[in-house]
């Protein structure tokens, strides 16, 4: 791991796959807690890739039905069943993950653009049934995100895909258990925050994680 890979103070590093319903639940709750605490300008989100297809060695299976159940925990997300209107469920999300990584480039919009694109892709998938597995559909979503320069992003998708594979190469070293997993600069490392193996659910964990991200080191 290089210094560039380490979480920075004031940043929540979120490792996940856009296809993962539990990750979208986590991101929704993170964003809601940050807004409620008035920390939108103080705590940023650095999205890193935990590609399920590389972890499992096979295409991502349809997760739309699971998403309806999982995201029903937060009605504000607005999850809907997969309509099939725009196509079949995509088996690969490397282009989507790569675009989120590439959007961190200042020519595209930086970390704010990356976070906005990640959120837009999750909602496109689980609310609008858009098959965001192709570069074409990813860029179509990107053009709807004000923070993103989609033309600049189009030229960086190859680099983004390389970044996804590099991220995946770090998961063992960093102890990333799956999607979602949160790292903070103080050493906090949490898999699927608030969700217990016993079925317990504590959304309030995000308040504490945000406060830890905000606190100065030392």
From TrEMBL:
Its name, as the record gives it, is: DsbA family dithiol-disulfide isomerase
Highest taxon of the source?
A: Bacteria
The lineage, from the top, is:
Bacteria, Bacillati, Actinomycetota, Actinomycetes, Motilibacterales
Q: Which Gene3D superfamilies match?
A: Glutaredoxin
């Amino acid at each position: 791991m290089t210094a560039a890979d380490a979480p920075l103070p004031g940043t929540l590093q979120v490792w996940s796959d856009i296809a993962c319903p539990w990750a979208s639940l986590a991101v929704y709750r993170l964003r809601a807690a940050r807004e409620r605490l008035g920390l939108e300008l103080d705590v940023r989100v650095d999205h890193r890739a935990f590609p399920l297809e590389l972890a499992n060695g096979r295409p991502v299976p349809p997760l739309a039905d699971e998403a309806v159940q999982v995201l029903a925990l937060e009605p504000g997300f607005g999850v809907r069943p997969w309509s099939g209107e725009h196509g079949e469920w995509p088996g690969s999300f490397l282009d989507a993950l790569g675009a989120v990584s590439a959007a961190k480039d200042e020519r595209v919009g930086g970390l704010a653009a990356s976070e906005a694109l990640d959120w837009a892709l999750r909602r496109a998938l689980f609310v609008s049934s858009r098959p965001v597995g192709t570069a074409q559909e990813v860029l179509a979503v990107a053009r709807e995100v004000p923070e993103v320069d989609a033309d600049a992003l189009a030229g960086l998708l190859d680099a983004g895909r390389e970044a996804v594979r590099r991220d995946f190469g770090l998961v063992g070293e960093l102890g990333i258990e799956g999607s979602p997993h949160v790292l903070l600069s103080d050493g906090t490392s949490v898999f699927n925050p608030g969700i217990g193996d016993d079925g317990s659910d504590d959304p309030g964990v995000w308040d504490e994680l945000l406060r830890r991200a905000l606190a100065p080191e030392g």
